[in-house]
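Fill in residues.
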């Protein structure tokens, strides 16, 4: 029987995935992972994407029963955090770091209580300088605020990985290194959403993490 891999997160995971079927996993890193694993191990895995654009950790937690626990995945990756910072910058509707850690902890505890044999991967958020993060007159020091808040959320993700002994994908250093080869606009469309090349970065790191738990 094939094992189920669940991709969970925000728009970077969502990437246009279908809402009415599990076949269309969008055009981002979940698709690249599905293509590689499906090719290398035919029929060994099923793939479901439940990422939703705009989600913060509180939104992910709110739908944990329907979009996570009920699916009973064998493997899952969680990629959340950038909107918790971005929504505060844009709309004063973000999630502060203390609450982010509290909700993340509650979410993982509930997942493990319901699915004790699940194998998880934690993905820490990143941000690059681009149109979505540029300074503007209405928000002084926008870039510095955004960058600092995302870094705080990434630090919480690292803390979660250490606490629960999970593989961690740290995207900020990976994207920073990539920017030494090409400009940020090559890797992301706006500083937040990856281009195809950026999704390839995530895919490669995801597969490296998967090798540790499969």
């Amino acid at each position: 029987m094939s094992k189920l891999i669940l991709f969970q997160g925000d728009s970077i995971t969502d990437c246009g995935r279908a809402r009415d079927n599990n076949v269309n996993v969008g055009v981002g890193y979940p698709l690249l992972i599905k293509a590689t694993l499906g090719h290398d191990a035919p029929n060994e895995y099923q793939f479901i994407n439940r990422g939703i654009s705009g989600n913060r950790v509180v939104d992910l937690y709110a739908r944990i029963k329907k979009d996570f626990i009920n699916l009973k995945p064998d493997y899952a990756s969680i990629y959340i955090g950038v909107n918790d910072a971005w929504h505060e910058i844009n709309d004063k509707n973000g999630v502060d770091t203390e609450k982010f850690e509290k909700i993340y902890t509650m979410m993982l505890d509930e997942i493990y209580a319901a699915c004790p044999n699940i194998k998880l991967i934690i993905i820490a958020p990143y941000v690059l300088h681009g149109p979505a993060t540029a300074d503007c007159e209405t928000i002084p020091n926008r870039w510095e605020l955004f960058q600092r808040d995302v870094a705080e959320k990434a630090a919480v993700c690292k803390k979660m990985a250490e606490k629960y002994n999970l593989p961690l994908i740290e995207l900020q250093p990976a994207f920073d290194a990539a920017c030494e080869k090409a400009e940020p606009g090559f890797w992301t469309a706006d500083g937040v959403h990856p281009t195809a090349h950026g999704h390839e970065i995530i895919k490669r790191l995801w597969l490296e993490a998967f090798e540790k738990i499969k």
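The chain has one domain: 3-211.
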